[in-house]
Amino acid sequence: MLISTGRKVFFGLIKKYDGPRFLSRGHSFRTVVGDTLLLPCQVQNLGSLVLLWRRGPAVLTAASLMVTRDERFRLVDGYNLQITDVGPQDAGDYVCQISDRVARDQVHTVEVLVPPSVRASPESRHASARRGGAAVLECRASGNPVPSVTWHKLNESNTRLGEGAQLQLSRLERQHSGKYACTVDNGVGPPIVTEFQLQVLYPPEITVERSWVHTGEGFRAELLCTVLADPPAEVLWYQNSFPLSASERVTMSVRGNNHTLLIANVQPEDFGNFTCVADNSLGRARQHVEVSGRPGAARFTSPPIARSRNSYTLSFSVDSYPPLDELRLLYRQLAINESFQQPGRWHDVVIPAPEPAGSLTHRVTHELKGLETGAMYEAIVQAKNRYGWNEVSDIFQFHTLGGSHSVHADELSPMFSTAVARRLTISTILLALYTHLLG
């Protein structure tokens, strides 16, 4: 190289200076708790300079010397920094720095992904509240990224209830009892499912299979009441207000929520009113069952449309252990127009008692004659044995052939046991019966 310095010109050799430089580059790293992480730091032409690893103000390494006492840190293949069993506390910036006047450095940013964890409340995973009250279930989740929390009720459909740390349930009913679960997930590792048991406390509720049980002397009677209660209820049976106890003929059994009273070889003194009474700390409930030898209500078996224009064969069956003593039939015509039904007067017919059937069910057939053509009628039946009259049957409607009004079976079938029609007509029917008897 030729160098000019004014008057003098001389030749000299100048050696080119190559200082240290990084071969690696700074990166952002994402790692999962428990993993091993390698942070690269590759330097060329370091010479006699010292390479430091720093985290904030703390020096981790100086040259090949480990300054930190944390044994999870070590240098690998030169100056690459390795961290084993990474924890949440290891997140942050790591600086690889050359200790010269320029203080050149290279920065790596570490983000530690943390699987979700849950803190449940109540810690016992069991909550209880009275019916009508409220309950709060809580899943406080932590992790990185921030986990999502979803709630489900563990039933056949696993009903989704909402999201967030708390599940608030208000106006509780007994149907709210059961298992609930929160699912915590942030995509790091498997989701965490925490289950809770919710107990809704309520006084007893009783339903009876039948409020009227038909039986006969020498036969058996079975009474069933279903009791729902929490806390569980104590259940007792009474007959005519007197408590019952097990005996040679009377047995009491429990299967789940079902409480059964079985009376074998029924005697006359077994007829009457029985009561199923349930008690728990929140209240008492009762339901009554009548055990009777009177006949069961008649069940109509004939088709709703007659086979002729002016007559109809009415068929029905009655359950009775003793022979039937008497049968009464009331029927009347319904005058139909487009807007209403105008009933006619009741016809009262005494039907001869059938011969003893030799079985529980007595089948009766009776022909009604002199009916109007193409007309609609309704009928009820009542039966009597030596224990008394049974309940009046449901209303049965039938239609004779002919006339301008065409009726199909599907128009009549829904009316055989219509509760509304029965309630509207029952007082009229009873009045007709009593008027006839008084006359």
TrEMBL record:
Keywords: Immunoglobulin domain, Repeat. GO terms for cellular component: axon; neuronal cell body; plasma membrane. InterPro entries: Cell_Adh-Cytoskel_Orgn (IPR050958), FN3_dom (IPR003961), FN3_sf (IPR036116), Ig-like_dom (IPR007110), Ig-like_dom_sf (IPR036179), Ig-like_fold (IPR013783), Ig_I-set (IPR013098), Ig_sub (IPR003599). One of its GO terms (biological process) is synapse organization. One of its GO terms (molecular function) is axon guidance receptor activity. The keyword Glycoprotein does not apply. Residues 20-113, 116-199, 204-292 form the Ig-like domain. It holds the Pfam family Ig_3. This is Ig-like domain-containing protein. It comes from Euphydryas editha.
